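user: Kindly work through both lines:
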Amino acid sequence: MLDDNGAVRRRDLLSLIGAMAGSAAMYHAMTSLGFASESRYRGPIKLEGDPKGASVLILGAGLAGMTAALELRNAGYRVQVLEYNARAGGRNWTLRGGDSLTELGGFTQTCAFEQGLYLNPGPWRIPYHHRALLDYCKRLGVALEPFIQLNHNAFLHASRAFDGVPQRIRAVRTDFQGQVSELLAKVTKQGALDEAVSREDQEILLQALRSWGALDRNYRYNANLISAEYRGYAEAPGGGLSSAALPSEPVALSDILKSRLWRYLQNFANYNFQTTTTRIRRFRGRPRPIGASARFPCRSSASCRST
């Protein structure tokens, strides 16, 4: 944890932040420290100089090592990559059913995933501003696909709230937003904002709150077809004799506040999450993260060896 001078190492500091506050906080810290800032990449690397038969030994077949091997080989160097593990990719790794993992202490786990399921224990997503990595994917023909960061139909769960019944993200967000909008509308109509907002702006604010919070004409948030368009229906509109839609019943604001689920609604709107909604790799129809294969730098004059 501490170096020879008694200072905390950056890697350990980031690990502590991630463990205590989550990945979003760690990513924010990395951005502040300059380790996750937007790429300044402007195009393919152009190495200069005459190698004259020079050879280069690269330690580690992670993404950086394989990229270095690729560029050095293209510049005319003879390249050899040494990798400690029996696979290339470094932290970029995909586990599927039947794969085994032996930890440093010697404990071995075997994945029992069903066919088609997989887990990326390393990086999951490629931020859109990682321009160099995306450019390599394009140049090397690495197929990409969207990573769905926010699913409004997914569940939020608090074991001590709602009798342990999970709640849809869209319902919690809409109910929280709607009932807060109702409270703000009441304050606005009572003239409590006269000192801060002009009369004209108050009228506009009321219109905005009615739209933003799915309020009715009386600026109330309740079970009706307006709120159902955002939080979901008890019975969705359809065709035929039973086509009439039935609104769903909102969760009381007090229950949402006590559940603490509102703490997680902003996760999906956080800038750091917006930048990491890009993609994962698909290799011959099977998902793999970038760097899971050593094929692109380890061919022709470049060789890759595990040792």
